[in-house]
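Tutorial handout. Part one gives the primary structure; part two gives the three-dimensional structure as tokens.
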Amino acid sequence: MSERFDIVALGEAMIEFNAARAADARTWLQGFGGDTSNMAIAAARLGARTGYVTRVGNDAFGRQLLALWRDEGVAVDGVTVDDHAPTGVYFVAHGAHGHEFSYLREGSAASRMTPASLPLAVLRATRVLHLSGISQAISASACDASFAAIDAARTAGARIAYDTNLRLRLWPLARARAVILATLRVADWALPGYDDAKLLFDSADPMQIVDQCHALGPGIVVLKLGHAGCLVSDGRRRERIEAVRVDAVDATGAGDCFDGAFAARMVAGDDAFTAARYANCAAALATTGYGAVAPLPRGVDVERFGRG
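Part two.
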């Protein structure tokens, strides 16, 4: 297969049920989620040629996800339909302490990914491979598949973009730290969130966290600081980029949107600092609607917002 993709993401996509109002948890809006799927859709909406690698169940939810990716322009060459396992589902509730997730994903089709099941032609046909800690945490075989995918993509010349996306419900901190740090050693772009990084690096100092990331290997580090923006480093220069203020209603998927926007601008030729400023705007817009996918902005939205 000749080069077809700017970005290929690997992980688990799920069906989302989101409580639209904190006071009425009986009303659930059906949508879509999964961090790396959100990232791929965000990048596609912003002009990148994207593909996705996963497994879905041979069920109504799996068919909905396939239709979603096709509608969004995300290639499904790397998606396998599993006749023997279901598509995962999760629920998002909102309360005084933010959003709370409940998952029905054990034994899901995506958790059955293995190195042998990988679509190597797709992985060898991309400029960037994106994956996350969740891609590795859903099962031991998916973790093995993630490392095999990295090997295949790197051998073919791809950059590796990695979001630590630590979820301690999925695995214990000691194992998560070991796997995530090992992955950072083979990543080119590190995209950790601050809350994750404090646990992984045992430090609350953003500068020290960036230093530790660089020491492992990534040439570019973007530490996402939520309401405080992000800290960007290319190993020679560092810049703190302030957050963009919006009327936020739901932060679900904002970090995934940041990743997709950042990668889309990097493959378009921006430097890390310009790409991060753009990604800050895109992620802010993603918080102005409910759900992980519906509010993901398109390029014209980000440009209009940036001009405003």
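Part three, for discussion. The two ends are 42 Å apart (CA to CA). The domain at 5-12+34-87+106-307 is CATH 3.40.1190.20 (UDP-N-acetylmuramoyl-L-alanine:D-glutamate ligase).
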